[in-house]
Amino acid sequence: MSMRLCKPGITLKKATTSFDGMAAYPVRNGVVLTSQRNEDTPEWLKPLKDETSANIAKLHTKSCGAAYLLSVKYKTTKYVVVYTFGTAHHRLDDDIFEPRFGLRIALNSIESSELRNMDVASLDSSTLKRRIQASRSTPVSDFGIDINQDLLTLLSGKSNDGTFARVITGRDSVSFKCPPKPGFFREKAVQAIEIFKKRTYKKNYPWVDYIDTVKDSRLIGDLENDLLAELTQAAKGRAIDASISTPEISDPLVEEAIRYSGAGMKPGKKNTFETADIYDYISEIKTALIFGKISIADIKSQKITLVESGSRKTKSEKIFKCLNMEIKKGGQRYILFSGNWYQIDSKHAKTIEDDFKSFLTPKPIFKPTKAKNERAFISQLNRRTDLLNMDQTKINPVGSTHANIEPCDFLSRKKQLIHLKDAGASSSMSHLWSQGYVSCTLMMTDASFREQFIKETKNREAIYKRSGFSIVLPKSKIIPDPTKFSIVFGVMRTRNKRDNSLDIPFFSKVAMKPSLSAIRLMNFKVFVEIIEKV
Questions:
Q1: In the predicted model, what is the mean pLDDT of residues 330-356?
Q2: Which InterPro entries match (predicted)?
Q3: Which residue has the higher pLDDT, 47 or 441?
């Protein structure tokens, strides 16, 4: 069964309104709600009937659900908990529930050596979601998560205290199995609240609080206003540090189209899209944003619908729950993820910022540019005779025929290998950092790569009628001296209109650190330069 905890101030009456259309059965200090859907013919039945002349029996699907809303007292405070069964969870209003309630219970109940399942979201300009499962109880170190970048969204494992449940799965809700008995629901609710209030998780999982939930309603309101302002600027053509993604891990075997609907959308038939993209969404509400005809309440009511190809099946979710965004405000960094606002721990943020600053170029290599994108900027740089265009040079290391590694985008006579990226919103920079790391690794370890690099450089010298570049590269049979080379990452960005800062997103800095630190450990000089787009 599954249990959720309502936020402070949410009454039993308020919580009940989330379940309109369900039959209500009052109980002491609570209410039981039920629903039963009509019979439906499964979509897979017709193709099976087409395969045989025999009369296949009539088959139907049914679904039902129930919710038990219960008011309980813990110490001196009243709380409302909601148990859901079957399909009832589809009717929940996420806004009334305590975020990460179940996750906190799991963290306080499961030893870090007794984990079985973990869901994480890697936060960058695009959000990557992973589900990691172990065949037996496993320590957290074996799950291979990045504590600086991964947001923990689900935890499952064996409880260290069997009085509540033997096995627990926690996210916003807590799911568990144990034999019911008289007074069971009230007893488990009180136990769950007590475990939720503990802080023992800080010993085994101290990194969890690097990203913590924002609970101040006034601050949340300010952040939501900032979100609306950023969406409005994006509708007018500005870049936005945001993305949109489906909230659940998708079935890779199912092809799905995406539709956006709700208040502020363009009237008429809705467009369909292959993937969830922030700019597609903004295009659907562009007019309403520009003319101020849309509110945060409207955005929270909008839906993203996944339509299964060749099927009537659809899955809908609130768009607000699918928005991912980063906002810097009052010296603090906040992110919107899965419908909740999170604050990044200031000490953790300072560590990341200090690391990033250590990579910044001491003297600019590039001037601000009017180029609208990376391709236009590369064309602009072609005029510089001190640089050689190596863009789209494809080299395959030993044992590979389709790796197509780019050694760099530009090479200088000063032995600078320059990698460029137009880091507009919804564009992940992870590939940029990875490209530089792979190139450096192959330069140090693969003679064939070095030989092809020299060959391609000579070809480009002939194309662009330049000289003096191939001779700065090491001979193919000689391992280069990395201290003689500089690896430069040029990131194109526009200034933030709210604070006039020229920066890259926080989680892009987090994603940068492993690759650039590894390059530095090889003894290459490595730099990052933010190139202003004007």
A1: 92
A2: CHP04141
A3: 441
Q: How far apart are CA 16 and CA 14, in angstroms?
A: 5
* The one-letter amino acid at 202: K
Residue 301, pLDDT above cutoff 80: yes
DSSP letters, 447-489, are: HHHHHHHHHHHHHHHHHHT--SSGGGSPPTTS---GGG-EEEE
CA distances from 131 to 3, 139, 216 (A): 22, 16, 31
Task: Select from 501, 466, 492 the least CA-distant residue to 380.
Answer: 492
- Residue 189: what pLDDT? 96
CA 76 from chain center: how many Å? 38
Domain boundaries in the chain?
A: 1-98, 99-213, 217-341, 348-532
Q: What is the DSSP letter of 369?
A: B
Rounded Cα distance, 223 and 243, in Å: 16
DSSP letters spanning 77-98? EEEEEEEEEEGGGGG--GGGB-
Round to the nearest angstrom and report the end-to-end CA distance of the chain.
55
Look at residue 229 and tell me whether its pLDDT is greater than 80.
Answer: yes
Helix 506-521 with 430-445: angle, nearest 10 deg? 10
Place of tokens 């499952």: 156
How far, in Å, CA of 429 to CA of 492, rounded?
11
Which one has a higher pLDDT value, 387 or 114?
387
How far is Cα 411 from Cα 398, in angstroms, rounded to an integer? 23
- The DSSP result for 293-327, as a single string, is ---HHHHHH-EEEEEETTSS-EEEEEHHHHEEEEE
- The reported pLDDT for the residue numbered 56 is 81
Measured CA to CA, the distance from residue 305 to residue 318 in angstroms comes to 9
C-alpha 139/C-alpha 156 separation (Å) is: 12
Sign of the Cα pseudo-torsion (114, 148, 328, 224, in order): negative
> CB–CB of 378/391 below 8 Å?
yes
Task: Kindly list the distances between the CA atom of residue 57 and the CA atoms of 38, 63, 72, 412, in Å, as whole numbers in the listed order.
Answer: 19, 20, 48, 74
Give the global pTM: 0.77
